Amino acid sequence: MRHGPSSQPGALLRRGWFVALTALFAGVPASGLRAQTPVRLHVTLTPDSSLAGARSPVVRSENLLGAESRWLTALRSGLPVRLHYRVEAWRSRDGWFDNFARQIEWDLVVRHEPLLDQYTLLTLVGRRRQERRYATLDALGAALAFAYQVNVRPEEAGGYYYAASLQVSTLSDSDLDDLKRFLAGDLGEAAEGSEGIGDAVGRGATRFLLRLAGLPSLRLEARSPRFVVR
Q1: pLDDT higher than 60, residue 126
Q2: Confidence of residue 72 (pLDDT cuts 50, 70, 90)
Q3: 20 to 30 A Cα–Cα from 203, which one of 29, 92, 170, 215?
Q4: Domain extent listing, the chain
Q5: How far does CA 41 lie from the centroid of its chain?
Q6: CB of 220 within 8 A of CB of 155?
Q7: d(Cα 193, Cα 164) in Å, to the nearest integer?
Q8: How far apart are CA 65 and CA 40, in angstroms?
Q9: How far apart are CA 200 and CA 202, in angstroms?
């Protein structure tokens, strides 16, 4: 007897997970997802304490893990959150295009460990890495709001400013590839028996619905006041 597509185990499981998770999100209006305290990025200057007047940037983000934060929802759903910071020093020139001087980048990767009910924060700066663990969400939020004084000061005389950016994301390219295969009916390792089909389908459905909820990425930019190096 030939069965239709809806009677196949993979299709039935996918349908069940989509129905359950769609019901979970159905009670949250789309406008409510955007009616939260916005994430902000700030870049200020250290005091003018050097003879040459060179000042360092101080970069800080806020409201990343507010009570209604979509990034908090992502963490609790098992998705790691990546914060990519970049700070550029620019030389401003009246009547000309500004000149790029130098830059520095670093990453923070935040994960929730449900079995231990704690959070890990991995800091990556070049080849250096440091991992910290936090038992509460408040402690993690305080760590994410830490103000970074960045060593990217220009050395030549002239007028300068700093341009900072923050890219927040959850789903990597490999995640999206997995999702495409899932939607096409390919369960990957689950089909070979190394992972339960229900687990594979559930993970794929969760990522899909979270992406629809507006979770994939956020880009913020900020600019410091102008200062003069003598």
Answers
A1: yes
A2: confident
A3: 29
A4: 9-37+172-214, 39-170+215-230
A5: 13
A6: no
A7: 47
A8: 11
A9: 5
